[in-house]
């Protein structure tokens, strides 16, 4: 990937860092909010607008963008030549709003093919951070008795190809009425952070394919 670089805002030769306020301003401007409209609104309202299009608060988005440049994970590392904030925000917008390529084209003023390439470039980078973001704390939750809450969720997917039938019943999600996969998620009670993820499994599988024997271990104080 290569493109004209964003405005220089680096703390060194290789790291480009933005404050949450800068992320907020740039994100709204990308969506064609005028400077006057941004100034007239309270900060809480602008953050609400930002989250409605990018999914997370500016402070979270700013941290992800910085983490991509500082990570030691090769698949997640973002080289300086590709540290494009506008393209990164476009990928975050895709996760939240899931626009078609024709809808994305006028919003971000980008060719459909180029937009597709940039979106999946950044989504794969963010996905690769899973190894360091979704993990148990080093102190194994300290002295907490109640550690995590475990639940499942379905994600809609394109209908998988079946060797004989037009649809594969194993992937049928009763939540969406179409093909999907299931995940087992563990949320830390004290911090509300995702610390455990298991899957994906075909959504139509009994128990979503989740290892039921592992659940008692996860819900206990220590593993």
Give helix and strand order, one letter per element, not per position.
Answer: HHHHHHHHEEEEH
- What is the overall pLDDT average? 87
Please, how many helices? 9
Structural class: alpha+beta
Output the radius of gyration: 20 Å
Task: Provide the domain count.
Answer: 2
Straight-line N-to-C gap: 43 Å
Tell me, briefly, the overall form: globular
Question: How many strands, which pairing sense, and closed or not: the largest β-sheet?
Answer: 4 strands, antiparallel
User: What kind of oligomer do you see?
Assistant: single chain
| Amount of helix | 25-40%
Unreliable spans are 211-223
Explain this structure.
The protein is of the alpha+beta class and 223 residues long. The protein folds into 2 domains: 20-132, no CATH class; 148-219, no CATH class. The chain contains 9 helices and 4 strands. Strands 1, 2, 3 and 4 form a 4-stranded antiparallel beta sheet that branches. β3 (178-188) and β4 form a beta hairpin. α5 packs across α7. The chain starts with 19 loop residues before the first helix and ends with a helix. 21% of the residues are buried.
């Amino acid at each position: 990937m290569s493109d004209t670089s964003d405005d220089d805002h680096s703390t060194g030769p290789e790291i480009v860092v933005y404050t949450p306020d800068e992320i907020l301003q740039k994100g709204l401007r990308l969506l064609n909010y005028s400077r006057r409209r941004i100034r007239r609104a309270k900060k809480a309202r602008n953050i609400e607008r930002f989250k409605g299009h990018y999914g997370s608060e500016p402070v979270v988005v700013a941290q992800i963008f910085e983490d991509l440049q500082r990570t030691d994970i090769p698949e997640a590392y973002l080289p300086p030549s590709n540290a494009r904030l506008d393209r990164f925000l476009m990928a975050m917008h895709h996760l939240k709003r899931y626009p078609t390529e024709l809808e994305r084209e006028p919003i971000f003023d980008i060719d459909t093919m180029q937009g597709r390439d940039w979106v999946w470039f950044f989504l794969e980078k963010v996905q690769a951070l899973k190894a360091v973001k979704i993990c148990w704390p080093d102190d194994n939750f300290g002295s907490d008795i109640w550690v995590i809450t475990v639940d499942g969720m379905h994600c809609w997917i394109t209908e998988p190809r079946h060797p004989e039938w037009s649809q594969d019943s194993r992937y049928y999600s009763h939540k969406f009425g179409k093909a999907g996969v299931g995940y087992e998620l563990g949320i830390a009670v004290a911090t509300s952070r995702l610390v455990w993820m298991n899957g994906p499994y075909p959504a139509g599988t009994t128990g979503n394919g989740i290892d039921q024997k592992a659940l008692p271990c996860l819900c206990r104080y220590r593993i």
